[in-house]
């Protein structure tokens, strides 16, 4: 038996959905579906017979009708021959003979009568013969010539303008058909197939995203056509917990499933054995596209691994991520805190790179997170094991990054994105519209991975590469109507999967207790920042970086707390404010100072400090900012301080520049903003 073609395999796959059950109704629908393609010739035979009987009733004795019918028969046959010039010679001849025979019988039946002489016999014998000839042609159309390697009638491909393309042996999987396609040399290219994907989907009555084409990198006319008849993503799947609790961050992160049911996986660290590079990730999607659930799928997978720490910035005050916040090594709520985190990441990169290089690692691997007890990874010149603490992988995540980019500039992440991968750091940036007026082209080019959710059709090019869009990816078709639907492009994922839609799992209120347990597990069992990373962070952030909070102790019983409160009340001592404790009630009041008199309208109010005292108060203000963890400052941060001490913002601006010259401050990328250098680091 000749080998089955792609059309047959796809037809069988699609028709399996139409067969229904084993009931009589299901069998009847199946038989009717199978008979539909063969009915038109028989319907034409029946209509011709009825037309002959009606014509004889109308024109039996009309000579003019005989002339008109004869001319119409000749004209119709000629028109059929002319219209068939673009088809094969066999189809053209077959069509013309059929029309000529039918129109000749109709003319004779109208003039002489359908039952006169042999006219009825010709109808009963010749009509079925012509109808069967077309049925046989339709059957043979799906039987390829083994020698030619292609079918006599291309069917589906002929409809979409690819009749001369050759289809190889198809691979049929559950809900997925993959067939190699070879186009006509010198006449067609892979671009012709990508332009025809919408028409192929229309011919199969499928959504556009169900038909993809992956061009071969070695040929301009070869590739693979992938068709997924059933959308398995329509069913919502809720998140129930991480996929690999206690595993390594180097193992795949499972964030959902593809439309054929396969797991949706991605990797962050590189793998020198597999030839996979470390990556940064962009999460992009419009409002209502499910970007929050996609981020939660990824973050829960990351926090469930034993050798990774997470620095997370969220200007929305952790509205979606509050249950997971205790498991984070550093959490910032935007604004100045995020400025400090960005500066700390920039400082941490060279420190981690030096450590990895000193211990013989060209890139971060899971062994780097362990205590360095082997001679192959030692920083000692004599080659003996150094015993240095391991360095966990670091994920720096900036949620709603458009807010940060507006505050710090569109190139805030450029240096991090270009340098962090070699330091065992993965940058994750999440925002709705990664257009070039928000994010610099250099930063976007340094984010090789993307989770692209539904968006405006005009924004597709900002999220996905052109070749993935050409292969059939179309996130603009979803918008916010299908939350969680996404395309994932990342190292480690086969390229033919880039244009395959997936869907992340949904987080509901039932997921909150599980997320809280996961955060507790991360507190107790997850990695902690190594001395190199923590030291570099504190050299920039000071007390703003404290590391992951310890697991909260068990609450004390209410009775014990009441006893302690009573005890405190009994031994509270004198009822005076602490700031008044050292005042001698017998001492004289100090003399008047300039500015202590009652102010006059239009004059400066209150006491103005001397220049030396003002500088001392300014130094104390910097120390206070440092104790509070506010390590990025500018004149606007001193507004209340200026009002309290009757000093101007211009005076503060000069003092900030002087402090930078003295090494107490360091300029940032944002004009008018300065980073406080911690006192110990400055010393």
Automatic annotation (TrEMBL):
Native organism taxonomy: Bacteria, Bacillati, Actinomycetota, Actinomycetes, Kitasatosporales
Organism (species): Streptomyces thermoalcalitolerans
Positions with a binding annotation for ATP: 285-292
Residues spanning the membrane: 39-57, 63-84, 96-116
PROSITE patterns: FTSK (PS50901)
Keywords associated with the record: ATP-binding, Membrane, Nucleotide-binding, Transmembrane, Transmembrane helix
Record's protein name: Plasmid transfer protein TraB
PANTHER family named in the record: DNA TRANSLOCASE FTSK, SPORULATION PROTEIN RELATED
Residue ranges, compositional bias (Acidic residues): 578-595
FtsK domain mapped to chain residues: 261-462
């Amino acid at each position: 038996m000749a080998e089955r073609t792609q059309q047959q395999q796809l037809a069988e796959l699609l028709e399996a959905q139409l067969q229904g059950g084993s009931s009589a109704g299901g069998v009847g629908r199946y038989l009717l579906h199978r008979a539909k393609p063969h009915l038109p010739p028989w319907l034409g035979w029946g209509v011709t017979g009825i037309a002959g009987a009606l014509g004889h009733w109308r024109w039996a004795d009309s000579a003019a009708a005989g002339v008109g019918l004869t001319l119409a028969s000749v004209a119709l046959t000629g028109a059929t021959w002319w219209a068939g010039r673009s088809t094969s010679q066999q189809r053209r001849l077959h069509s013309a003979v059929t029309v000529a025979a039918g129109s000749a019988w109709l003319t004779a039946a109208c003039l002489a009568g359908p039952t006169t002489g042999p006219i009825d016999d010709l109808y009963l014998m010749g009509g079925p013969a012509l109808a069967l000839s077309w049925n046989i042609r339709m059957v043979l159309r799906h039987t390829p010539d083994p020698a030619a390697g292609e079918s006599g009638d291309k069917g589906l491909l002929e409809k979409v303008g690819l009749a001369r393309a050759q289809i190889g042996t198809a691979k049929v999987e559950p809900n997925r058909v993959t067939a190699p396609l070879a186009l006509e040399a010198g006449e067609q290219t892979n671009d012709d197939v990508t332009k025809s994907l919408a028409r192929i989907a229309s011919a199969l009555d499928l959504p556009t995203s169900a038909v993809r084409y992956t061009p071969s990198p070695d040929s301009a006319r070869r590739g693979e056509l992938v068709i997924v008849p059933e959308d398995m993503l329509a069913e919502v799947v809720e998140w129930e917990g991480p996929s690999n609790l206690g595993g390594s961050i180097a193992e795949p992160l499972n964030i959902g499933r593809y439309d054929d049911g396969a797991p949706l996986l991605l990797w962050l660290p590189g793998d020198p054995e597999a030839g996979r590079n470390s990556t940064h990730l962009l999460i992009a999607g419009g409002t209502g596209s499910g970007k929050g659930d996609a981020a939660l799928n990824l973050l829960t997978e990351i926090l469930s691994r034993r050798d990774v720490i997470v620095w997370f910035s969220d200007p929305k005050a952790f509205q979606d991520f509050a249950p997971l916040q205790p498991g984070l090594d550093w959490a910032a709520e935007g604004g100045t805190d995020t400025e400090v985190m960005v500066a700390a990441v920039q400082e941490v990169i060279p420190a981690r790179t030096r450590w990895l290089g000193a211990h013989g690692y060209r890139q971060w691997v899971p062994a780097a997170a362990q205590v360095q007890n082997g001679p192959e990874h030692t920083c000692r010149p004599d080659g003996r094991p150094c015993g240095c603490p391991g360095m966990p992988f670091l994920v720096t995540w900036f949620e709603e990054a458009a807010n940060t980019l507006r505050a710090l500039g569109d190139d805030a992440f450029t240096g991090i994105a270009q340098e962090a991968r070699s330091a065992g750091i993965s940058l994750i940036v999440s925002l709705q519209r990664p257009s070039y007026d928000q994010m610099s082209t250099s930063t976007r080019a340094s984010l090789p991975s993307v989770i692209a959710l539904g968006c405006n059709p005009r924004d597709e090019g900002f999220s996905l590469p052109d070749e993935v869009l050409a292969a059939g990816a179309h996130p603009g078709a979803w918008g916010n109507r299908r939350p969680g639907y996404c395309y994932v492009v990342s190292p480690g994922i086969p390229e033919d999967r880039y244009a395959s839609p997936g869907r992340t799992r949904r987080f509901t209120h039932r997921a909150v207790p599980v997320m809280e347990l996961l955060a507790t597990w991360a507190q107790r069992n997850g990695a902690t920042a190594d001395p190199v990373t923590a030291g570099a962070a504190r050299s920039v952030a000071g007390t703003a970086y404290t590391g992951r909070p310890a697991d909260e102790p068990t609450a004390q019983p209410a009775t014990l707390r009441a006893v302690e409160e009573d005890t405190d009340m009994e031994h509270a001592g004198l009822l005076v404010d602490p700031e008044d404790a050292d005042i001698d009630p017998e001492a004289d009041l100090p003399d008047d100072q300039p500015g202590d008199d009652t102010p006059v309208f239009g004059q400066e109010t209150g006491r103005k400090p001397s220049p030396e005292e003002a500088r001392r108060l300014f130094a104390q203000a910097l120390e206070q900012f440092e104790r509070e963890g506010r390590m990025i400052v500018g004149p606007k941060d001193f507004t209340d301080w200026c009002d309290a001490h009757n000093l101007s913002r211009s005076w503060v601006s000069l003092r900030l520049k002087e402090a930078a010259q003295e090494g107490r401050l360091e300029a940032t990328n944002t004009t008018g903003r300065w980073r406080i250098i911690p006192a110990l680091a400055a010393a």
